[in-house]
Design brief:
Shape: globular
Structural class: alpha/beta
Largest sheet: 6 strands, parallel
Distance between the termini: 44 Å
Number of strands: 13
Strand order of the largest sheet: 3-2-1-4-5-6
Helix content: 40-55%
Number of helices: 20
Radius of gyration: 21 Å
Length: 445
C-alpha cells in the first residue's frame, strides 16, 4: 500500500512514519512518498526517517520528490500536511492581527482567516489533481485550518477526503484518565467544528461519567482543561470545551498575552525549525536525536501563553506525546482492512447537526469502515454553542467564496463577520495588511 505525504519535509512527518513502523499487520503501508517544494527539508526529514527505520526489518520504503503529480500517481492514501507560506507566513499572520489588537492564531480568528485564504486555492488544486491522478485514493487532511480546508477539498473529492485533528483525541484521553477509565473503552460525545467543539458526555459501559467529573471540583481542576478554563466556568457550561475555545472565552487575556510575549508562537517555531533543519544536516549529527529534542521543546511550549494567563502551569508529561499520527493510522487501517472503529473526525455533516447544511464539514464521532467515515447522530448543541458554530461556519463559507471568486470585498466580509474581529474598519485594515505581506493573496482584487 502506498502512502503519499504532502508536506513531506515537515517537522511532524517522523511521527507518522514512527506509527507506520509499529504497524506489522498484513496490508500495511509498504511505500511512503514524501512531497515538498523544498529539497533541503526533504533531505533533512529523510535522514530522520532513515535512522528511525535502521533496526526495523521490512520498514516502509521512503522516496522523496518535488513533483506533485509524480507523488500522487498510484497513491492509496494521501496525507496532506502542507503549510502555504511556511512558518514565516504564520508569524506574519500573527503580527498583522496583533497590531490591530485582534487574535492572530493560525486557526482561530483573523490569523485563521488569513491562513485559510492562502491555503484554500492550493488545497483545491491538490484535490483536483488527486481526482485526476489517484481517483481511488483517500485523502487524510491535517492541513490547517483543518475543517475549512477539508470542506474546500470535499467539493472536489466528496467523502473521500477526511480531516483529522489530535485535539479531541487528547481531550477525551485526559477526561477518561482523570475518571480512572481506559480511553479505548470510552464513548466520547463530542461535537462542533475543528478547534470549536465540546465534550458533552463520556460514556463507559453505557453510563455517562461526565456529570461525576463536573460535580467534583478536585477532579475537574486536576487536568489541562480544568486548569485552563477554571472549574466554575466548566460547571457553568456543563461541558468540557476544546482547548482552542480559550481564545473565545478569554479572548482579551489571550490577545494581551500574545502582544506581551517575547515572540509569537509562529515566530518561535520559525526560528526553532530553522535551527533544526540546519542542525540535522551537519556532518555526524544524529538526526533522530536532534528531531526528538526539538519535538519535546515544541510540545512543552504548546499554548504556553494561554496556560500562563490562566495560571495553569506546565503541561502534564502524558500530554506531550502527540496523537494525530495514531488517528491517521487508525483511519487508514479501518478503511484499508475494514477494521471498524470509532474516531472523532472532520467530515461532511449530512443530517448530523440540523442547524447546518449537509455539505458543511463538522467535527464529530464517526464510525469508520471500508466505505469511509460515517458521522454518528448527536443531540442538538445548546444555544450558546450553536451560535458560535453557526457564526464561524458562516465565516468559513465567506473564506471559500473569496478564494473561489478572488473578491476582496468578500474577504473583508469574512474578517468582519468573525466573532473575534469587532469592527468592519479593522477587517478592511486586516485585508490591507495581509495582502501587503503575503504575495499569495495577490488574487484578491
Amino acid at each position: 500500500m502506498k502512502l503519499t505525504i504532502l508536506g513531506g519535509g515537515g517537522f511532524r512527518v517522523p511521527l507518522v512514519y514512527g506509527a507506520l513502523l509499529a504497524d506489522r499487520a498484513e496490508g500495511r503501508v509498504t511505500e511512503v512518498v514524501l512531497h515538498d517544494l523544498d529539497d533541503g527539508r526533504l533531505s533533512a526529514v529523510a535522514r530522520v526517517l532513515a535512522e528511525q527505520a535502521a533496526d526495523v526489518p521490512d520498514a516502509p520504503a521512503v522516496t522523496a520528490t518535488t513533483d506533485l503529480d509524480e507523488a500522487l500517481r498510484g497513491a492509496d492514501f494521501v496525507f496532506s500536511a502542507i503549510r502555504v507560506g511556511g512558518l514565516a507566513g504564520r508569524a506574519d499572520d500573527e503580527r498583522v492581527a496583533l497590531a490591530e489588537g485582534v487574535l492572530g492564531q493560525e486557526t482561530v480568528g483573523a490569523g485563521g482567516i488569513a491562513y485559510g485564504l492562502r491555503t484554500v486555492p492550493v488545497a483545491v488544486d491538490i484535490a483536483r489533481r488527486v481526482a485526476r491522478l489517484a481517483p481511488d485514493a483517500w485523502v487524510i487532511n491535517f492541513t490547517n485550518p483543518a475543517g475549512l480546508v477539508t470542506e474546500a477539498m470535499s467539493r472536489h473529492l466528496g467523502d473521500r477526503v477526511i480531516g483529522i485533528c489530535d485535539s479531541p483525541v487528547g481531550l477525551g484521553r485526559r477526561i477518561a484518565r482523570v475518571l480512572g477509565a481506559n480511553p479505548k473503552e470510552a464513548w466520547i460525545d463530542y461535537v462542533g467544528l475543528n478547534h470549536l467543539g465540546w465534550v458533552r458526555g463520556l460514556h463507559i459501559a453505557g453510563r455517562d461519567e461526565l456529570p461525576r467529573l463536573l460535580a467534583d471540583p478536585g477532579l475537574l481542576g486536576s487536568f489541562e482543561e480544568g486548569k485552563l478554563f477554571g472549574v466554575d466556568w466548566l460547571q457553568s457550561l456543563g461541558a468540557i470545551p476544546n482547548e482552542y475555545l480559550h481564545y473565545y472565552y478569554f479572548n482579551r487575556e489571550a490577545v494581551r498575552a500574545y502582544q506581551q510575549a517575547e515572540k509569537t508562537r509562529g515566530a518561535f517555531l520559525r526560528d526553532q525549525q530553522a535551527h533544526f533543519y540546519e542542525a540535522v544536516t551537519e556532518p555526524g549529527a544524529k538526526a533522530l536525536d536532534v528531531w526528538d529534542r526539538t519535538r519535546a521543546e515544541r510540545e512543552a511550549t504548546y499554548m504556553a501563553e494561554n496556560r500562563e494567563t490562566a495560571g495553569a502551569g506546565e503541561r502534564d508529561a502524558d500530554d506531550l506525546s502527540g496523537g494525530y499520527e495514531k488517528v491517521a493510522l487508525a483511519l487508514m487501517r479501518a478503511i484499508a482492512r475494514d477494521e471498524r472503529t470509532t474516531l472523532i473526525l472532520n467530515v461532511r455533516n449530512r443530517d448530523t447537526l440540523s442547524v447546518l447544511d449537509g455539505d458543511a464539514v463538522i467535527e464529530v464521532p464517526c464510525l469508520v469502515d471500508a466505505n469511509g467515515a460515517h458521522p454518528v447522530a448527536v443531540k442538538p448543541l445548546p444555544d450558546h454553542a450553536t451560535g458560535l458554530v453557526c457564526a464561524v461556519k458562516a465565516v468559513e463559507r465567506e473564506v471559500l467564496a473569496a478564494a473561489e471568486s478572488g473578491s476582496r470585498t468578500t474577504a473583508v466580509k469574512a474578517f468582519a463577520l468573525h466573532p473575534l474581529v469587532d469592527s468592519v474598519n479593522v477587517a478592511r485594515r486586516l485585508v490591507e495588511g495581509y495582502t501587503s505581506v503575503h504575495p499569495g493573496l495577490g488574487y484578491l482584487k
